[in-house]
Specification:
The complex is a heterodimer of chains A (127) and B (107). Chain A is 0% helix and 57% strand. Chain A contains no helices and eleven strands. In chain B, 0% of the residues lie in helices and 49% in strands. Chain B contains no helices and ten strands. Chain B is globular, with a radius of gyration of 13 Å.
Amino acid sequence: QLQLQESGPGLVKPSETLSLTCTVSGGSISSSSYYWGWIRQPPGKGLEWIGSIYYSGSTYYNPSLKSRVTISADTSKNQFSLKLSSVTAADTAVYYCARQSRRVVVVITHLDAFDIWGQGTMVTVSS
Amino acid sequence: DIQMTQSPSSLSASVGDRVTITCRASQGITNFLAWYQQKPGKVPKLLIYAASTLQSGVPSRFSGSGSGTDFTLTISSLQPEDVATYYCQKYNSAPLTFGGGTKVEIK
């Protein structure tokens, strides 16, 4: 069955760039039916959507993070990645990757709920 | 941006009790509303999408209702394994906002 696995450094220094990769197995990120997203959760707090990407490169970002976020996809490796620049302690969180269905109604693309999640990876921002 | 407000933020109920959690959107989102369950130390799990459609494999004691701005997640008979934090999420348009969560405990 489809599985997602996050990977990347667990410790990032303030002002540097956080980089994570999500490897998808048991299915292809090149499917026309899905977007692939990143969500984070600071310790003891709630969930925050970061952004989502279609295999072709089309993206949606959370406006609160948009100036610092880049999400990209590598179909040859069946992976998608997150880069978050100029990190501070407030970016310390568990970062999840997840799959969401894509629907096109007339010409408008709609994103659905996140139905399959990775296990999450803890990233700490500290010097 | 549309804000999602959950209430209560926490509750304690007895095994077998009927539990209701509310999620309110600051603007109408038709039925583009999902509910997730996150057990302590675990990954969030999709319970309900389209406000009332049960995800495959989710026990039938869970149900969702509502449309527009007001939504409800109901557990008809609370079980010990239902101890978790529950989140609503709207997905009608970006940003895909989550509610603040409702922590459910056993009395």
